[in-house]
């Protein structure tokens, strides 16, 4: 497996703030890679380190095996789709898309042809003569995408690309980006704070917190087997179980996580299981989300809609498969 | 060029430098942004920071020299004698006269500016708003000397104002005003009243713009809320509008005050033979050749404005600039 | 301040605002009438008769032409210097966060914040100290000193509205520093610079206070006018020149307003 991007002990400090702190990271060629984390977790700084807008304070960065420290952004065959799209307001759409080819000295006819093709690729054929100001948010985003792709980058960086779009548009774009990436085979690295987006689009996800990578893995890994309380809590909304609780069911004194959908709720008052009290129900359409109180421990369960439920305030019994109780690496 | 089969894209991930002078310079600027910054700031800093500030300090330093009364030569030894001269009664008169004029001009400008600024901020929309803006900007930028000249035409004994008052049978009023001590004189163009009118006229736009800017930030419903609560228009003005417009008025007054303090042309062309600070500086450095006293005189507006700015900053006037 | 549509101003306010605007404009309009008067010796109103002969007389006055030519040359070169210095300063101040940017802003504004007479005398004594004789260039240096701020203010305002990621986007797409400046920065600030340049030109063309101290025997238009105001020679010629000066400064101001009137551009805003 060729490494498209490789970080070795990379740090980026701003004064006393450690935006990125000794990060090791391997992104494979052709991969759709997501960097997920809350704001200020260092994911965007990592993206900017790959683009070349930031230089590492320490450590080394390679792009397709070539060292990238000290290389300015304009000499990296890496392109970015900016969060605010950063389209040039003084150029029309076609000239925006052809910009990268123009500065590389590609002739006018050739570059405009390539730009028109790129616009078709993002399903905006014939929009070339418009100004960025005349486009909707979704259209601007496609132009930004075409403007990056026309340069045939080795790595495409996307900084919260869907953040400014409304829900419906966002879902469409998720699918489109994914199929585009499959067709083109370009390595996509995208930054997001939306765990749903990261899980549904990416081949692999890195979860960031406080300038460090907490966990890297496939969406399933991250979702089913979070290695720390932070990941369990941030990715989806796992129930985080304290070591004493976990010990009773697994025999090991470690932090555990339990997905809400793995919990079964019955109105039995005795038998095997965790005694709890139903404190709230939240109807979500296909499912219902239950808030439970197990002797002071706050738990959530998700059950299919239509399940008969005891009334709020009543005692319930919770059961789950031992397999679905995941033990985390984090020390107790 | 097509965007396909990128998987086998043979281009390198890191491109070689474009080479040549330009490529090398571009890389250098990128690697050393501080160097680029220095290059960008150097010409301005050299001129403004060293030559200009240097000459200002050199000027101030001269105020601590003195002039030999017999030879007229400058004695380059530290002394406070020149400042002693500055506080002679005649010179104190000049300072007091100038400060009083500056204060009156500021007050009058604020009174005239307020309705214009208020109308422009609250009622003018679209085309009218642009018209108001230009209506203030054009006089602001029109030639300073031409504006003074226009008032020389208006205030002249045979000019349009006298003609107008004669038509209205109000000449007696003008004569009565001109016969008053201090503010009167032979005609308006050689009286303090004339000087005052021209000062107000020339600096008025500098007052309107910041007041308008301050009023633009007052939500309209605040005024309605006040009248809703039963306040009379007078009360609304006193308790709501005026306090909110005050930072703008103070910001504008910085201009009207400072510009009046330093001006030497308006009182020279329209006014009496009694001097203002600017004229005193001009004549001390020119005909009298007393550079130290001229320098000491320039310290006066600087000190006054220093205190003024300090006070204005405390009132938050700089946000309205 | 916003208020409900259709609400109209109280009559008193309307009258006060209208009177204020008339007060600002009537004196300037008066200049236009006087340019046509037949009266030579006094400022008598109403003009005894109207004539255009003074335009011809003014046209044939070499001193007027000399002053005009000097003023235009001084204004053009001062504006050029101010454009370069002001743009560089504005770019440095707005593109980077560095220690002392407040000080730089203050420094640039100082020459117009201080009374002109102080700047004038300070420069005059500096020239005397350095043994620089008064010339065309001493006038230009004086003017450039206070013209920088006008360009600077316009450029800073535009840089603030220009999305910072646009420069990164350009570099990301393979443009080096020079290409980015030529293809992205310059087109985006061009109208602001043009407006700043226009205002700087008008400011220089009109300046008299500093010029009195930095000019030798040469006369710019304002110096010529000041001379005529203090020691009038031919009043009708002064009237005509005054009118021409009003018209000449009017055009760049209107043009500058036209260039900067669109307050908000859509500089890559995504939302």
TrEMBL record, chain C:
Record-annotated membrane-spanning stretches:
12-36, 70-91, 103-122, 134-156, 240-259
**PROSITE patterns xrefs:** ABC_TM1
Keyword terms of this UniProt record: Cell membrane, Membrane, Transmembrane, Transmembrane helix, Transport
Keyword Methyltransferase recorded: no
InterPro entries on file: Bact_Polyamine_Transport (IPR051789), MetI-like (IPR000515), MetI-like_sf (IPR035906)
Report the locations given in the UniProt record: Cell membrane
Question: Which ranges carry the ABC transmembrane type-1 domain?
Answer: 68-256
One matching Pfam family is BPD_transp_1
The answer to whether the entry has keyword Nucleus is: no
- Which superkingdom does the taxonomy of this entry point to? Bacteria
Q: What is its main location?
A: membrane
How this chain sits in the membrane, per its record, is:
Multi-pass membrane protein
| Family to which the UniProt record says this protein belongs | Belongs to the binding-protein-dependent transport system permease family. CysTW subfamily.
* Name of this chain's protein: ABC transporter permease
């Amino acid at each position: 497996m060729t490494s498209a991007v490789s970080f070795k002990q990379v740090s980026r400090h701003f004064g006393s703030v450690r935006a990125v702190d000794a990060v090791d990271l391997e992104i494979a060629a052709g991969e759709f890679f997501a960097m997920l984390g809350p704001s200020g977790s260092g994911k965007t700084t990592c993206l900017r380190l790959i683009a070349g807008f930031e230089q590492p304070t320490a450590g080394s960065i390679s792009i397709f095996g070539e060292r990238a420290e000290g290389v300015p952004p304009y000499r990296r065959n890496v392109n970015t789709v900016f969060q605010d799209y950063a389209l040039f307001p003084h150029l029309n759409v076609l000239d925006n898309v052809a910009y990268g080819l123009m500065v590389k000295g590609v002739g006018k006819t050739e570059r405009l042809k390539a730009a028109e093709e790129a616009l078709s690729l993002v399903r905006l054929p014939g929009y070339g003569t418009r100004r960025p100001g005349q486009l909707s948010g979704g259209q601007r985003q496609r132009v930004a995408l075409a403007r990056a792709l026309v340069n045939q980058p080795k790595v495409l960086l996307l900084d919260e690309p869907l953040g400014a779009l409304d829900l419906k548009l966002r879902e469409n774009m998720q699918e489109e980006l994914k199929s585009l990436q499959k067709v083109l085979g370009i390595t996509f690295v995208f930054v997001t704070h939306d765990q749903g987006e990261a899980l549904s689009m990416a081949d692999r996800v890195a979860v960031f917190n406080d300038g460090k990578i907490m966990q890297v893995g496939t969406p399933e890994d991250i979702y089913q087997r979070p290695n720390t309380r932070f990941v369990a809590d941030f990715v989806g909304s796992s129930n985080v179980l304290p070591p004493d609780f976990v010990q009773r069911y697994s025999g090991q004194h470690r932090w555990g996580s339990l997905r809400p959908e793995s919990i079964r709720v019955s109105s039995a008052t005795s038998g095997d299981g965790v005694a709890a009290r139903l404190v709230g129900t939240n109807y979500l359409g296909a499912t219902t989300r239950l808030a439970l109180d197990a002797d002071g421990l706050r738990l959530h369960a998700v059950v299919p809609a239509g399940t008969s439920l005891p009334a709020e305030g009543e005692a319930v019994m919770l059961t789950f498969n031992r397999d679905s109780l995941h033990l985390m690496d984090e020390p107790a | 060029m097509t965007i396909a089969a990128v998987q086998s894209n043979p281009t390198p991930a890191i491109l070689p430098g474009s080479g040549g002078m330009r490529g090398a310079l571009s890389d250098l600027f990128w690697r050393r942004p501080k160097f680029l910054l220095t290059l960008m700031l150097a010409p301005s800093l050299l001129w403004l920071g060293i030559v200009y500030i240097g000459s200002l300090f050199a000027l101030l330093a001269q105020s601590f020299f003195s002039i030999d009364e017999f030879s007229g030569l400058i004695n380059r030894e530290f002394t406070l004698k020149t400042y002693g001269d500055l506080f002679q009664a005649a010179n104190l008169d000049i300072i007091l006269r100038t400060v009083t004029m500056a204060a009156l001009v500021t007050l009058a400008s604020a009174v005239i500016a307020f309705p214009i600024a208020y109308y422009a901020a609250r009622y003018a929309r679209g085309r009218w708003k642009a018209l108001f803006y230009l209506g203030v900007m054009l006089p602001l930028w029109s030639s300073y000397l031409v504006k003074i000249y226009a008032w020389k035409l208006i205030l002249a004994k045979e000019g349009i104002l006298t003609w107008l008052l004669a038509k209205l049978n109000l000449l007696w009023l003008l004569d009565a005003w001109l016969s008053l001590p201090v503010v009167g004189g032979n005609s308006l163009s050689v009286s303090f009243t004339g000087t005052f009118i021209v000062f107000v006229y020339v600096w008025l736009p500098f007052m309107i713009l910041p007041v308008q800017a301050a009023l633009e930030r007052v939500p309209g419903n605040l005024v309605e809320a006040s009248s809703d609560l039963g306040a009379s228009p007078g009360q609304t003005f006193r308790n709501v509008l005026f306090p909110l417009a005050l930072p703008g008025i103070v910001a504008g007054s910085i201009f009207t005050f400072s510009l009046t303090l330093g001006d030497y042309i308006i009182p020279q062309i329209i006014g009496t033979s009694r001097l203002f600070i600017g004229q005193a500086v001009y004549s001390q450095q020119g005909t009298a050749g007393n550079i130290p006293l001229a320098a000491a005189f320039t310290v006066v507006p600087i000190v006054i404005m220093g205190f003024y700015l300090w006070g204005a900053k405390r009132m938050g006037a700089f946000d309205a600039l | 301040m916003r208020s409900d549509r259709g609400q109209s101003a109280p009559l008193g306010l309307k009258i006060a605002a209208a009177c204020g605007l008339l007060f600002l404009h009537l004196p300037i309009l008066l200049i236009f009438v006087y340019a046509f008067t037949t009266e030579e010796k006094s400022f008598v109103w109403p003009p005894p008769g109207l004539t255009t002969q003074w335009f011809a007389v003014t046209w044939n006055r070499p001193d007027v032409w000399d002053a005009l030519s000097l003023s235009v040359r001084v204004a053009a070169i001062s504006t050029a210097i101010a454009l370069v210095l002001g743009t560089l300063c504005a770019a440095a101040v707005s593109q980077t966060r560095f220690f002392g940017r407040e000080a730089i802003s203050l420094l640039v504004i100082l020459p117009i914040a201080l009374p002109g007479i102080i700047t004038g005398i300070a420069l005059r004594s500096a020239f005397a100290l350095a043994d620089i004789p008064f010339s065309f260039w001493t006038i230009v240096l004086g003017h450039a000193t206070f013209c920088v701020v006008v360009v600077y203010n316009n450029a800073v305002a535009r840089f603030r509205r220009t999305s910072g990621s646009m420069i990164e986007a350009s570099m990301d797409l393979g443009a080096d520093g020079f290409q980015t400046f030529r293809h992205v920065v310059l087109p985006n600030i061009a109208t602001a610079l043009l407006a700043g340049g226009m205002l700087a030109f008008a400011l220089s063309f009109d300046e008299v206070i500093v010029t009195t101290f930095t000019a030798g025997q040469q006369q710019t238009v304002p110096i010529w006018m000041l001379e005529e105001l203090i020691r009038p020679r031919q009043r009708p010629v002064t009237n005509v020149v005054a009118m021409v000066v009003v018209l000449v400064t009017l055009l760049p101001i209107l043009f500058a307003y036209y260039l900067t009137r669109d307050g908000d551009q859509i500089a890559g805003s995504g939302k």
